[in-house]
Amino acid sequence: MRTTIDDRRRRLPVGAQHAAPRLGTTSTSWPIEVFHSSNFGIPADAKEALAFAILAYETFHQRPSNLPSATGAKKPAILGKISYAPPR
Predict the structure, then answer these.
(1) CA 44 to chain centre
(2) Is residue 88 domain-resident?
């Protein structure tokens, strides 16, 4: 998910059920607020499925889904492949 800036604070949505409390106790000096993904209406158990659905949607619409600045890729790329069943 994207990090949002609100009132000069960065928000880090966390999907794992136990990661938010762990990060919350160790991040007191970090300039971010840590939230559980359920605060945004995304159940922790559904976050990975949602991420793959977004990647599939972008691939189907032939849009790149990678971030070259974060991955070291040379250029944006369409991730995955849509495979159709052979005609009968």
Answers:
(1) 12
(2) no
Distances (CA, A) of 33 to 19, 36, 86: 13, 10, 49
The residue-averaged pLDDT of 33-59 equals 88
> Could you tell me if 33 and 55 lie in one domain?
no
Q: Give the pair of three-digit tokens for residue 35.
A: 């939230």
- The DSSP bridge pattern shows strands 4-6 and 9-14 to be antiparallel
CA dist., res. 63 & res. 76, Å (int): 9
- 0.70 exceeded by pTM: no
**Residue recorded with tokens 């059920």:** 17
Per-residue pLDDT band for 77 (boundaries 50, 70, 90) equals very high
26 lies in the same domain as 52: no
- How many helices and strands, by DSSP H and E, does the chain display? 3, 3
